[in-house]
Amino acid sequence: MILCLTHSNDLYTIDIVMKRLKELGKEAYRMNSDLFSHQLSFDYSLSERKNIVHVQIDGHSIHADAVEAVWYRKLWQAEIPDELDDDFKEIYFQEYYTMRNIFFESLGDVPWFNPMAKDHEISNNKFGQLSVAAQNDIEIPKSLFTNNQEKVRAFFYEGCNKQMIAKLHGTLSRSMSGNASFFPTTQITEPNLEGLATLVYCPMIFQEMIPKAYELRIIYVDGEFFTGKINAGQSERGKTDWRIATDIHFKWESYNLPDPVATSLTKMMQQMGLFFGAIDMIRHQDGRYIFLEVNPQGEWGMLQRDLGYPIGETIAEKLVSKLS
């Protein structure tokens, strides 16, 4: 059985992958990570001869030794009972997350797409991402990670020539459509420099603002690329972040990456230890390709939906190929 690890609100993409897995003759089970809670039961037992790790969820029995591989799509916070007293919530999450991790670790000898620890390591270190990209001859923007307002001020004038953007390291929410609440990439102007005192409470990433011809969402699936081009430059709101370009209508276009760019990105992903990732790049107005980041759990459904790319099918096929 192939375990597809996601969450209850995941739509569209999960169904594509599971459908293809079944077409390939593999049993696939969707486990919603938020339901690893009071919504299921589990029992882990040990003896001198054998360890048994068993989960019962929605009438389905999962034994760890029956799992052949894991597609790690998403990991969400566990559901919590409405009636649980606030005083018990901390211990509730502590113990359920510990038990959930024991279950995941019991699957450590089977292929994961992506390996969970590597996925989290890369997601939580954009500084490291930029460093690995540069090591593989991929251009990156000048960047500053800081809570120091004086460093930001100097970077604004000396490093960015007054053309600078700011963004959070993480995200507040994730959405295939890009219309959920989140903190967008924001241009910083001189008047903004006077309001940096609060930076000490929320460190941020500052980067030179790249004059862009267009943006690329590049889906990497174990050596294969599916790339969408989007040009939100005509939008006043979308000049820094296409996800907030609600003042114009735009659409995804198919795009072929130049071979040298694809080769460098492949080397980067292999060095990071990722089989899958959603890579964001900017095409500079002078023609250069600038790497922004890679999200190991990034969204790709809009590219399959709008451009007909077989991304979900490729994920399933690549995962099954690792079983042989």
Automatic annotation (TrEMBL):
Record SUPFAM superfamilies: Glutathione synthetase ATP-binding domain-like
Domain MvdD-like pre-ATP grasp: 1-119
Domain (ATP-grasp fold RimK-type) ranges: 124-317
A GO MF term: ribosomal S6-glutamic acid ligase activity
An example Gene Ontology CC term for this record: cytoplasm
Pfam families per the UniProt record, alphabetical: ATPgraspMvdD, RimK
One GO process term, biological-process aspect: SOS response
PANTHER family: BETA-CITRYLGLUTAMATE SYNTHASE B-RELATED, RIBOSOMAL PROTEIN S6 MODIFICATION PROTEIN
Protein name: ATP-grasp ribosomal peptide maturase
Higher taxonomy: Bacteria, Pseudomonadati, Bacteroidota, Flavobacteriia, Flavobacteriales
